[in-house]
Structures are given as structure tokens and as C-alpha cells.
Protein: Ribosome-associated GTPase EngA
Amino acid sequence: MVVDNVAGTTRDPVDELIELGGKQWRFVDTAGIRRRVHQTRGADFYASLRTQAAIEKAEVAVVLIDVEERITEQDIRVLQQVVDAGRALVIGYNKWDLMDEERRYYLEREIERELVQLSWAPRVNLSAKTGRHVDRLVPALEVALDSWDTRVPTGRLNAFLGEIVAAQPHPVRSGKQPRILFATQASTRPPRFVLFASGFIEAGYRRFLERRLREEFGFEGTPIEVSVRVREKRRR
Structure:
């Protein structure tokens, strides 16, 4: 299932099969959330709930951002909903054909500033109204779904983490330096990794490991989760 989330009217989601790239895709168009957060009340509040429900039922979400306007808090909120739900993600920059060079310059700066944490999401510049470049969605969707379903063999994962930790170990805090003892991928959809460590692993170091995992194994278009389990010392 694909969720196509667009700011617009407050109608109910539309569920339809669309053929793209020789395949049938089920789109749920959840158009209905206005772009200003303070307007999210009444019908807009229920539209937001419907969007959340659609995201949770989806496998990959296509979030359309109107390039004629600044990236808003509402855009970021919807994107975060997708990440929090653990769904694959493709970002579509809509009305690209209507944008002039000045707006393009400022949009790129906004993307760098506001969406830096989502640099892993495939980007498609298109026009939903005219259909221009809509066909480019298919490769992005397929990459995102493949990443969402990727499993890294345990041996390869631990060999890689061993190299990373040896080159850049966890910082020493209060005279202690936690060690990563073992790692495993607990599940897919999205990929979830569990690190077994001798002590608490700081959030900054977890983000560093997540970044290196992406560099090594791709995971383009999917959130990944890295959690830590501390193994207590056995009492003698």
C-alpha cells in the first residue's frame, strides 16, 4: 500500500489502484491536512487522524511537498509521522515545473536546513497535476521497499561494527568506556538492530553508528532503529 499525503481539502481518503512502471500500486490519497499547524482543528484534526491511520496501514509513504511554498512545520510533522510509524518513505516535490530559479535556490537551502535528518529518503521532483515525472516514483518506491525489507547477515554486521568501533571507539565517560560485545538485526520492515554492550551507549554514538550502517548497507528510503541492551556483569 502507498500513502500519498498532500495538503488540501478535508475529504476522506481515496483508495485506488494505479498502474505505474508496469505494476499495480494501491494509493491511498489522504489529502486533507492544511499546512498551518494552528488550523489543525475540527475537520482538520480528524483528517490528521485519518492520515495517521493510513500511514500505519501502508508499506511506503509518498509525502508530497508543495515547492511553491516554504517547507512548514506541518510538512515536517507528517514526515515524522511516517518515520515514527517505521514506514518506508519517498519525498515528492510537487509543482516542480512551476518553480523559477530563485525559488529553487531557496528551496534547496530549506531542504538542507529542515530535512537534514531525512537525507536518506529518495527524492522525486514531479508535477502531480500534469503527470510530469510521476513515472520516476516507481524506481524510488522499489528502492525504498527493498531497503525496508533488507536483512544484514549477523556475521557481516559484526565484522563491520568491529572495524568501526576499532577505528572510532565510544568516548570515555567518568573513567568508563562501554564496549559493543555483539550485534544482531532483530527484524525488518523497518530494519531494527540490537547492540549488546558492556555499558550505556550515548545517543550521539548511536547516531554515528546508524550513519555508518547506512553508508555501508544503503537503507535508502527506510528508517532504521538502533537499540542497546546492557549486559550486566555476572556476580561470582
About this structure: Residues 161 and 202 are 16 Å apart (CA to CA).
